[in-house]
């Protein structure tokens, strides 16, 4: 009998599934309205100064009002994206025990993660699995196999796109974009390859529980299944998938660095009862000793290092089961 690729969610977290009381344990996932994120054509950056300025303004406005937007003509070919997805699917189709013990030059120990080890109730359990891969393990690896080769090509392109976008966002704030070139290096950024198995028994499960990202920006390539939802004006909205676009979202560090001009908004993934979902996320992060501080006065947040931020997040997740994030670093009046 062929072993399933799916992690043993119900067996491992059986205590959470025992004596289920929907009102108590399951997240409240009422029907949400579908929305289309602001769509930005990056080819406008090459169409003369007027179009270039308008495109930059559109990027900044979406980052202020939504915290999310999608880009087309972003410089990463469909061929690269399709190859990346194909290799990712092959990787996740391996039997669960092989993924648990997966050894590859690009995957360090502990890179494979699934579920939520710290979960104390079903609201905190993520019905998903992922490989977390540092770019320092990807770039210059020599492409020893098809997965390594396409990961390196994808990483180079998405790194360049991320740098371009943060440069624009810094410029629109009147700030020096050199800060990001000095602090966000390949060995501080990483990829996360995600798979969300179908969840027919518990359709109210989260693929990933509500959270904000802790980086500067995240670049997401998702498939056509859907499931990503975000908060806008206090309401949850389902993001309509666009196979031609990459999704960009602002992270906590950029919200703090911009003094709350750009918004890091809460988002989640809802499990699908019929279909599995795949996505690839690139996290644009600085070194742990990088100090995050706004040039504006009065500052909303006190200065803090990225390492301090990550440590606080990990402590809160361990104690409370969820991330608290930026409110921990508000200036005390």
Automatic annotation (TrEMBL):
InterPro entries: DIOX_N, IPNS-like_FE2OG_OXY, IPNS-like_sf, Iron_ascorbate_oxido_reductase, Oxoglu/Fe-dep_dioxygenase_dom
Family the UniProt entry places it in: Belongs to the iron/ascorbate-dependent oxidoreductase family.
Oxidoreductase is among the record's keywords: yes
Protein name stated in the entry: Fe2OG dioxygenase domain-containing protein
Chain ranges of the Fe2OG dioxygenase domain: 185-286
Keywords, sorted A to Z: Iron, Metal-binding, Oxidoreductase
Pfam families given in the database record: 2OG-FeII_Oxy, DIOX_N
